[in-house]
Amino acid sequence: MYKKIILSAIAIALSSTLYACGDEAAAAERAPRNTEISAVSTDIATTEYTRPTRATQSTGTTAVETRRAHLQTTTTTTAAYTRPTRKTTTTTTTESTFVLSDELVAEKIYTFFTDKGYTTEQVCGIIGNAEIESGLEPSRGIAGGGFGLFQLQDCPQRDAMFEAFEANGVGKYATASYWGRGASNFDSRADFDAFMDVLLTYTMDPNDTDWQNELYLANDPEMAAEVFLVNYERAIGGDDQIIYYEPAKDRYYQAAAKRRDSARKWYNYFSS
């Protein structure tokens, strides 16, 4: 019995020794692994975390990313509002765009006759008669009566004038449809100039030199108005007497006083 107890104690002692030796061998095997794990843990603890970069597709930036980048880099400015221009329509009309005036007609007469050598006083006598005869309307016409600034009656000179109007492209202004249209009579300044050149040229009838020679003798607008009235217009009758022109003094002529007054008015105009 004592032998069994002794053997059991020996077996227990051997078992403890073998277990201890096994633990030491296992510990020796685990030591290097424990060292690696400790090193890795240390690295993880001391290394700064970096967020992984999102992979982009090889096809390029998406439309959403492009729009986002545009909004981030573009400065938005507010443009001033511009009112749209209303579309206009050009309307062509037959109405005259040239406005006639007494002054314009008078200036045309003045230039024409002063270029012929007449003085301001003498030319204003002519203008004074034109204003009474026609109201300074170049194409003033009266059915069965006179025509133009000086109301020229039917005669070879008048026929030649109308032919010249046609030749110069302004014949329509001598027709009845244009009589008395006043300021809207001519379509253009060019037509007015052409018409007046013919009208004034044929006023200077080369076969009628009496009034021209007598007019050179007038030394004031009133006398010049009477000279033109007596020798060119020949408007005999009425209630007014000739005062300044000696060859016809005290004779009665139509609107002689008004012609004198008009001549003085235009003389003041051109002398001022």
How much beta, percentage-wise?
under 5%
Average pLDDT for all residues: 77
pLDDT under 50 segments (min length 5)?
Answer: 9-28, 34-47, 54-59, 74-79, 86-94
CATH class of the domain at 102-271: Mainly Alpha
Indicate the percent of residues in helices. 40-55%
- Rg from alpha-carbon coordinates: 60 Å
The termini sit apart by 173 Å
Largest sheet: 2 strands, antiparallel
Order of strands, main sheet, comes to 1-2
- Class derived from helix and strand content: mainly alpha
Task: Describe what this molecule looks like in 3D.
- The chain is an all-alpha fold and 272 residues long.
- The protein has a two-stranded antiparallel ribbon with strand order 1-2.
- 26% of the residues are buried.
- The chain contains nine helices and two strands, in the order ααααααααββα.
Q: Characteristics of this structure?
A:
Lysozyme; mainly alpha; 2 strands; two-stranded antiparallel sheet; 272 residues; 3% strand
